[in-house]
Amino acid sequence: MHSAPSVRTLVLVWLTLTIMTIVTFEVSKIEMGEWNIVVALLIAFFKMMLVILIFMNVRSESPLTKLFVGAGFFWMVLLLGQVAIDYISRSWMPEGKMW
Amino acid sequence: MADHSSAVAEHNPNLRHHFDTMEQQFDSATLGMWVFLLTEIMFFGGMFCAYMIYRNMYPAAFASTSKHMEPFWGATNTLVLIVSSLTMALAVRAARLGQQKALQILLLLTIFFGLCFLGVKGVEYHQHWVDKNVPLIAGHWDYSNSEEFPNQAQYAKQAQILFCFYFFMTGFHALHMVVGVALMLTIFFMARRGKFNASYFTPVEISGLYWHFVDIVWIFLFPLLYLIGRTKEMM
């Protein structure tokens, strides 16, 4: 079966996730206007990729499984993207600003 | 188990008859689990999408609700879940290598951290209950002005929607945690009865996938519910 990540790799990923959690906690105290949400979500995305690729070991799964995981991403992009486009283009947002 | 024909020299007792090899069986199980997780992504994705819309519709009201969240508890719970993901990943590794004792200890640690998470969540829910921030329950919703949070009464109706999002999203997440803990207990008792070995550990692997998925949902809930709007002053 596929190779298991080494203990060293797993602990390093855990350390990175912990550090990123502290970073996102501290950065959220700084006023950056709309960039607060962008930074917070980018950090969350980075953490998610680490969990998926290393902890869930998708890195060494079969191509078919990778395709399915990718389909999940694609579906989320469709859902959030298309809905956001609809709301923005129709000016349905009363206060006009994103976030 | 049916009588094995001598034609199959080394038939693994855990290999179901409709699979050719253990490898194929393992890949099928993993793929099947991912298909289930995709339906979970759709389930939570719908809530995230609705949240995005309402967050944009009522930004000021949302900024006022952020003041009632305690980012410290949110961050603590994030760290707790990340540790539980580490012990889970190590448990899967131990199962792969056939280390039975390590597998059982790591599963118990995972269960312990899962319960810690639920405990902290309980403390938070209790605080919202005391602060009268629970919408839809008579006597536990009061969003009038207070010394601490002035001018919030004008957002009372919109804030109610946003607290509903908070309770539904964290509530469904907590429900997934409860299911996860029950799942880990099952796996633990299976491990104790010696069900797993280095050639067969599929249940450990796919339960691990579920556990990590629930962790990922929280990784997004934490910044969206606790961190955004922290710097915003009350209007």
Write a structural description.
- The complex is a heterodimer of chains A (99) and B (235).
- In chain A, 70% of the residues lie in helices and 0% in strands.
- Chain A is an all-alpha fold and 99 residues long.
- Chain A has 2 domains: 60 residues; 38 residues.
- The model of chain A has no long low-confidence stretch (mean pLDDT 88).
- Chain B has a single domain, classed as Four Helix Bundle (Hemerythrin (Met), subunit A).
- Classes of the chains: A mainly alpha (99), B mainly alpha (235).
- The interface between A and B is large, with 54 and 54 residues.
Largest sheet of chain A: none
**Share of helix of chain A, binned:** 55-70%
Number of separate domains of chain A: 2
How are helices and strands ordered from N to C of chain A? HHH
Number of strands of chain A: 0
Series of secondary-structure elements of chain B, N-terminal to C-terminal: HHHHHH
Question: How many DSSP helices of chain B?
Answer: 6
> Rg of chain B, please?
23 Å
Named CATH architecture of chain B: Up-down Bundle
List segments of chain B where confidence is low: pLDDT < 50 over at least 5 consecutive residues.
none
Mean pLDDT of chain A: 88
Secondary-structure-based class of chain B equals mainly alpha
Largest sheet: number of strands, sense, barrel closure of chain B? none
CATH fold assignment of chain B: Four Helix Bundle (Hemerythrin (Met), subunit A)
